[in-house]
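Subject: Interface between my chains keeps coming out wrong

I've been trying for a while to get a sensible model of this assembly. When I model each chain on its own everything looks fine, but I need the whole thing in one frame so I can look at the contacts. Pasting all components below, labels as-is. Any help appreciated, I'm running out of ideas.
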Amino acid sequence: EIVLTQSPATLSLSPGERATLSCRASQSVSSYLAWYQQKPGQAPRLLIYDASNRATGIPARFSGSGSGTDFTLTISSLEPEDFAVYYCQQRRSWPITFGQGTRLEIK
Amino acid sequence: EVQLVESGGGLVQPGGSLRLSCAASGFTFSDNEMNWVRQAPGKGLEWVSHSSRGGNTLHYADSVKGRFTISRDNTKNSLYLQMNSLRAEDTALYYCARSAIASTGTGAFDIWGQGTVVTVSS
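Reply #2:
Try treating it as a single job with all components included. I did that and got this:
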């Protein structure tokens, strides 16, 4: 099973700042990594697929990078609605696995 | 509008059974692979099970293998999860999620339902 480790567990930033979230895989997942955003009481929403492709309707301030074992989700300038929990997920091999999440909170 | 609506959750005793359903609309259901994902209270996301487009290739998390069965009826645009021998640790919000069409393997989960709550308790 591929283990995904996200860091930091919690990130405290202010609106307008840049957010950098990390996801590290226990073995290579090539580019088969996705990022999801989840707000309280809501289902997860796909942000980025295949490491760097924005999903439909996702603002350009969200970007993803990386390949192999190290990946980054960057939010260039935080909007109030961006404060949420973010998960990475790999689809390289079964079982599909998620990281434990990074909580992005308002400082 | 592309939509997934789960139903069938509820309170069940340990050792009991429950069948979840997911009704799809707004897209050609048979074109997409489908998944169940769960989230225990206050915890992260856990993938549970996957079905290929025709329902002939299935995958399960080790935590549910042998107890849960995923199936689909493409004529009814519906996905199911039969859950047997339920345990307290199966208590969670269960989401139905669509895999995006991908050139290799199963795609990212691009559409999610709002979930149905399963509580296993005596």
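Reply #3:
Confirming on my end. Chain A has a mean pLDDT of 97.
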